[in-house]
Amino acid sequence: MMSQTAPFQLTYPRPGNACLMHGMAERLGADVERAAASGDISLQELSDMVSRCGDCTQHDACIIWLLDHQGPQVLPPEYCLNTQELHYVRAVQGQISAN
């Protein structure tokens, strides 16, 4: 007889979500791993960014955007749910490298 327990819930983000978020960060010149390591953002904020990417309904459009926009970019696509956070990281890192 099978148990009545709930199925196992995966608590880690899917790798594809992290790849899309990191790809967008790279295009915008925002090193989110360095930002988390230095304390510019918390590890929870980094995790939230990956989760936000996972909640997005525009994965296919994002993949196409990343393929079509190789190299440094000024703005993410309008549907990016991490726009504010990516701009923050880029601004903080820009101030650090400018000093």
From TrEMBL:
DUF6455 domain boundaries: 17-91
Name of one Pfam family that matches: DUF6455
Superkingdom of the source species: Bacteria
Alphabetical list of InterPro entries matching this protein: DUF6455
Protein name: DUF6455 domain-containing protein
Source organism per UniProt: Celeribacter baekdonensis B30
Classification lineage: Bacteria, Pseudomonadati, Pseudomonadota, Alphaproteobacteria, Rhodobacterales
